[in-house]
TrEMBL record:
This is Membrane protein YfhO. The lineage of its organism: Bacteria, Pseudomonadati, Bacteroidota, Flavobacteriia, Flavobacteriales. The keyword Transmembrane helix applies. The chain crosses the membrane at residues 7-25, 98-116, 123-143, 149-165, 170-186, 192-208, 220-237, 348-365, 372-392, 412-433, 445-463, 499-517, 524-541, 812-832. Pfam families: YfhO. The keyword Oxidoreductase does not apply. InterPro entries: Uncharacterised_YfhO. Keywords: Membrane, Transmembrane, Transmembrane helix.
Length: 846
């Protein structure tokens, strides 16, 4: 009976999560969809991939849509036999973002049920975790892979704790393996990496407990073996994805450096420190886990527009010279953010009550949870400081494997956002239920923690202006007093409002706990009060960053690259800042569409109107020189930095010719100017002059100096390729593209002499095959980043096809891993049921 009652409570809790998720996302009821910046960029960059899939029913693992061509592994490619990804898709069955919110709630509920085995505390903890502000910020931005990965943090931890703490080996194996597989399938390695840094503390905690004989060493070894097997099988289910990305990442900006210059050294792996640590949390800024606008909220809070208007008014009234105006302009940053980061979409607010309860939890929770959660929380906060705590950052970058592959250390605070709600409900549960904790101890801790917390808030409220400053170093340097004083006063008001709310919320939670301790308030009522106040707090803060304005009509969400303006479009856009870009880009989109329709050949467009490396509008209509992607191929990124981001009137056009930029678009989005480029090299060309150079630095320098239509720059390491392969000029020779697909290109060539064919296709050493008259031949790298192949005299059919071996190999490993999981899970369930039957038979006899 009790078991059935518990199942009812669990079912009701899941219904509550669905209701909360839908109530937060009410526009989905009217068919509206989220308008997410990164998803808009994805739709443009992945257009060629999506069209190929729709037209052929097959998958292409290469696309020419962005950055001259790149693998699609990080662009939404699908893998045959990817069963674990299908499970992930089925779990995300609800409309976006309801699916994310529901799984965040439900996943933590499972963790809560494993840890405290009480649905009330699991339900409360689920709202603490599922309403963490950072999740709503990344949903609004379109970081879907990130939030999809975070969904599986809590259930993965639940599976591990089932094994280590609950000693439920079979269920623990099943839960850990399944959610490890789903975690990897969500495809955000950075988030998974950060989670496992925290899990390292759990492993050390269990090892120490075993050494201290607080738990049997045999149990620790068995548990560790089961968890290791679960993780290996979970990873194995994703073999295609992992093997492809592992092969790919070595050739990207996350892999080894190729060039040697002031910022990096050839052969050194990972990104340069400046890029890695750009988004580092300020040390004081960490307190915005507790007070959302301690350092302001996002760079563009709702109050920012009004503040900017007032600033412009003050400047007009008080500034009398252009020199003073220029000085002021140097100090401008975000109106409503004054922290250490270059900018931010919002704070990693955890909730005043959650942070307060987490502090209590570190006193009330049992030691098997307390110390590893404390250690993991401290480490992740220190790592989030990044450039503001270089001794630790330097150590991790230089000595901890893979840490230097990831940027934006501030995002590691997702670990705290998992662990604070966890320690909060563990402490709360023991506060109400553990008789070993004396009333005197509870009261003492409650008084000290609540007094200290409320005291800190009072100090910040009274002395905040001197302690927090409310201005950046640049503003202090360049702003006159009248402007600085205004900004400080306005920002203090923002902070003060949130700090007063935090004071009130903590006071209510502390009072509820104190009254329940004195038997003047029922513990269940205390939980309801704490839950409702925390819900209100987080809900209202989250609505600053993900609200009804983030939803648009389906037509705009699914086709954000509108090419025709209309009264209806104008009407829909008015009042919604998220849609302003759609309206403002209509003319440039129409221009790009016109180019693509008039000239259907294969070429690329160089578009300066929206920022070469910050848009995918061009890619939506035609292959682009630029694009928008965090994991570009290293060689292409080097060329961008050398010649495109730093333009030169002589050298940059040569590079654009090399990349077959047949059209260039200048001006602004409203009045774009199309300039045809008749000098573009075309899809392929023959060269007879070879320039051999010794280093990559010489390679990249030379391609801006030579006539690349006649000469190819070749690395000295490829000299052996030309053994018995002479190259001789023929003015009548030609090579033309006859058939184009993103993963297969066909050319027809004619030459009286042997030639080197250079293709305006990005060099990638894995998966591409070159066949001359259907016989595979080796190819080399030319001009630092292009493919080249020696072509004998005569008429030839040349075919390039992208068939990465890792995809097929990975598919079979994935299927075998999933099959092994099913077999072991089935055997485990059979064994468990068999033992239960034995126990049932033994009990009457006894």
């Amino acid at each position: 009976m009790a078991k059935n009652k518990n199942l009812i409570y669990i079912a009701v809790s899941l219904v509550v999560f669905i209701v909360l998720a839908f109530l937060y996302s009410t526009p989905v009821f009217s068919g509206k969809q989220l308008f997410q910046h990164d998803i808009v960029q994805y739709r443009g960059g992945a257009k060629e991939l999506l069209d190929y899939r729709a037209n052929t029913g097959n998958e292409t693992y290469w696309s020419d849509s962005m950055f001259g061509g790149m693998p699609t592994y990080q662009m939404g490619s699908q893998f045959k036999g990817d069963i674990i990804k299908k499970i992930d898709s089925n779990l995300n069955f609800l409309p976006r973002p309801v699916n994310y919110l529901f799984l965040l709630f439900a996943g933590f509920f499972l963790l809560g049920m494993v840890v405290v085995r009480n649905w009330k505390y699991a339900l409360l903890g689920a709202t603490f975790f599922g309403l963490s502000t950072y999740f709503y910020i990344i949903i609004a931005a379109g970081h879907n892979g990130k939030v999809n990965t975070i969904e599986y943090f809590a259930p993965l931890l639940a599976g591990i704790l089932l094994v280590y703490i609950r000693k439920q080996y079979i269920w623990g194996f099943i839960v850990t393996t399944l959610f490890m597989g789903l975690q990897i399938a969500a495809n955000h390695p950075q988030m998974t990496y950060y989670l496992f840094l925290a899990l390292g503390f759990l492993f050390l905690s269990e090892l120490i407990r075993a050494i201290q004989k607080k738990t049997p060493m045999k149990h620790f070894l068995i548990s560790s073996g089961i968890i290791a097997a679960s993780c290996i099988i979970g990873v194995g289910m994703n073999s295609q994805r992992i093997m492809a990305n592992s092969e790919y990442v070595k050739e990207t900006v996350r892999g080894k450096q190729i060039l040697t210059n002031d910022s990096h050294t050839s052969g050194k792996s990972g990104m340069d420190k400046e890029s890695m640590l750009m988004w580092s949390y300020g040390q004081l800024e960490t307190l915005n886990l507790f007070i959302p606008r301690l350092m302001g909220g996002g760079s563009q809070e709702p109050e920012a527009k009004e503040m900017m208007n007032k600033v412009q008014e003050l400047v007009q009234e008080n500034v009398g010279s252009q020199a003073e105006m220029d000085r002021i302009s140097k100090g401008f940053s975000g109106m409503t953010y004054w922290g250490d980061q270059p900018g931010t979409s919002g704070p990693a607010y955890q909730g005043a009550i959650v942070c307060f309860l987490a502090l209590l939890g570190f006193f009330f929770a049992s030691k098997k949870y307390r110390y590893w959660i404390l250690g993991a929380s401290i480490l992740t906060i220190l790592l989030a400081w990044g450039s503001n705590f270089m001794p630790l950052s330097d150590f991790f970058i230089d000595y901890v494997p893979f840490y230097n592959k990831f940027r934006a250390p501030s995002s590691i605070l997702v670990v705290v956002e998992l662990l604070f709600p966890l320690i909060a409900i563990i402490g709360l549960y023991r506060f109400f239920t553990d008789e070993k904790l004396t009333e005197e101890y509870k009261q003492k801790v409650l008084m000290y923690v609540s007094g200290g917390t409320l005291g800190l808030l009072l100090i910040l409220l009274i002395f905040g202006k001197s302690l927090l400053g409310f201005s950046t170093a640049g503003e202090k340097t360049y702003f006159p007093p009248f402007l600085l004083d205004y900004l400080v006063d306005e920002r203090y008001k923002l902070f003060k409002a949130d700090a007063l709310k935090a004071f009130m919320y903590v006071a209510i939670a502390a009072a509820a706990l104190f009254l329940s301790l004195k038997k003047k308030l029922n513990p269940n009522i205390a939980l309801v009060v704490i839950g409702l106040v925390s819900l209100f707090d987080l809900w209202t803060v989250n609505k600053r960053y993900l609200n009804d304005e983030n939803y648009v009509d389906k037509i705009f969400a699914e086709n954000p690259f509108q090419t025709e303006s209309s009264d209806l479009l104008t009407e829909k856009v008015q009042g919604n800042p998220n849609l302003e870009s759609i309206l403002s880009n209509v003319n440039i989109n129409k221009t790009l569409e016109t180019i693509a329709e008039k000239d259907k050949a294969h070429y690329r467009i160089y578009n300066q109107t929206l920022g070469v490396t910050s848009e995918t509008n061009t890619s939506y209509f035609k292959a682009s020189i630029g694009g928008y992607h965090a994991v570009k191929l290293r060689r292409y990124d080097d060329v961008l930095n050398e010649y495109i981001n730093n333009t030169d009137t002589v050298k940059t056009p040569r590079i654009l010719n090399l990349l077959n930029a047949k059209y260039m678009v200048f001006g602004g989005p409203d009045q774009p100017q199309v300039v045809p480029n008749p000098k573009a090299n075309g899809n392929a060309w023959f060269v007879s002059d070879l320039k051999f150079v010794d280093t990559p630095n010489e390679e990249i320098k030379s391609i801006g100096e030579i006539d690349n239509k006649k000469t190819a720059v070749i690395a000295s390491s490829d000299k052996a390729y030309f053994s018995n392969k002479p190259v001789q000029a023929d003015s009548t020779a030609f090579i033309n593209l006859t058939t184009y697909q993103p993963n297969e290109l066909e050319f027809k060539s004619q030459s009286k002499t042997p030639q080197l064919a250079v293709f305006s296709e990005v060099y990638y050493p894995h998966g591409w095959k070159v066949l001359i008259d259907e016989k595979e031949v080796p190819y080399i790298k030319a001009d630092y980043l292009l493919r080249a192949v020696h072509v004998p005299a005569g008429s030839h059919h040349i075919r390039m096809v992208f068939e990465p071996e890792v995809i097929e190999k990975g598919k079979w490993i994935s299927l075998l891993s999933f099959g092994l999981f099913i077999a072991l899970a089935a055997f485990g369930m059979f064994w468990m049921n068999k033992n239960k039957k034995k126990e049932t038979l033994i009990e009457p006899t006894a």
